[in-house]
Amino acid sequence: TPCPMISRFLVPFLVLSLALVATWPGTNGSFVYDDLPYVVLNEAVSGSAPVLSSPLGEANQGLWRPATVWTWRAQWSGDSPAADMLTLNVWLHALVSLLVLALGRRLGLSPSASALGAMLFAVHPVHAESVAWITGRAELLAAAWLLAAWLAHLASGRWATAASVVALTLACLSKENALIAPGLFLLADLCSKARPLPWARLALLAAVSLALFGARSLVLENSLPAQGPFLHSDLAARTVVAMAILGKSLQLLLLPHPLRIHYHPGEFEVLGPVALGLVAAAAVAVVLLWSRHRPAALAVLLIPATLFPVLHLVPIGEPFAERFLYLPSVPFCLAVGALLAGWSRAELSRRGLGASLIAAALLISAAALASRAASRVFHDDLSLWAHAAEVAPELAMTHYNHGTFLVDAGQQHSRDASLPGAEAELRASLEIRPHHHQAAWAHQTLGHYALGAMGNDLPDPTAAARHYREALEQLPELIDARINLASIAIQNPELVDPDEARELLLPLVMNPELDPGQRLTIENLATQLSAAEPPSERPPEADPSGASAEPGKSSPAGS
Fold it and tell me: How far is 395 from 539, CA to CA, in rounded Å?
């Protein structure tokens, strides 16, 4: 057991330092992925909409996180403040690491176990998505306030009750997963038996959570998401999904490699042997530790409890994400810390201490290096999705999103097998899943490429027409595909019949969303199609790219 001076000063300093060292590369990042709708284009962040009454994203997503949005608004300057926002994320993670250290002691773990658990939490690579991504701040704030509420709940006195209520309120306003906090507190109180159960305080905290859940209905169309990957699955199917997500979570907490930004729902529709084995192993660990080391058993038991909001037993909008593991990693790291500390005690009883310290040092060092590497992946959208496509080549959306950001970077052609271009990545996404939910945009962009509108290739109107028809079959309201098919009809009526072209343009004539360039192009095309001269007498072809073949018209898949 460390001496009091080490416990009081050196250990917190070491935990803080490890958290900063492991995640600091994330401060060199930028706005990526969902940062665009949630932060950059969010009127509540820029100040033109109220924070408290504004949903985050679309109302049907069921996201209301005013405390998180307020912190973005407090830092927003409109002048690329990504670095400042990411720096605050890193410091928030360091604060949470210190709270993990304090919570371990309050839950009955030894000083050594709490210290090792907090150090591992500080450097765990699975936290990269929460720390190095501005949108991940919701996880950091919810965890920080929830742990503060927990520590206050474990204290005594009226001030502790008030502090717990305030902290819980802020946690729930940071992210909705904190609504389960009273249940976590009750579970820990029942398992520890260290004091009489504070039923009045637990009832008050439960009432606060219920009131805040009800308050969501005042802002949101639905208190729960109206859309989700398993929304219409029955209870049996949802149970399989829950077990699969729990198994995947344990796998990533034990071996956080490879890490990635995107998961497909199909990965959790079947409970594989690895996931089942890890869930069974966790259950056995609880049984074995229950009588020998109750705090360690509690820590393992709290892992599925903290995961409950994202197991799809109640609807959520995302199948799975590594940021969901930020709070569950708290009990996991404390459990690992308890095991390492137990190993050290066993060595000391034999008057030796070496292997356990070496193992702990190697584990923390390796995790810190992996965390730094994982944080660098979030430098920009291109690096983020290049990494995702590399580690998850079987998923259509990783290739589609990588291809989309290659379009923005002007990298149409592949430089070699390891550096694919936009066209290759978009084609790869369609080969894997021909009808993925962004397939229409992929076909439209490939149509632009076939026309030569986004590169230096010679036009291939046959391929372009095929891609545009595929795009419209899946998403009929695409304006670009309609305009460019009509353009092809002017020069190549054998590929696109002029009558078909006129029908394509007709719904666009009164479309109020058209920009002036598109409207002028449509008027010119309509005039030429109405003339309907034979091809030899037909006026020169309108610019096939028109105002429509812009790289920005490809839309990456959001979450």
Answer: 45
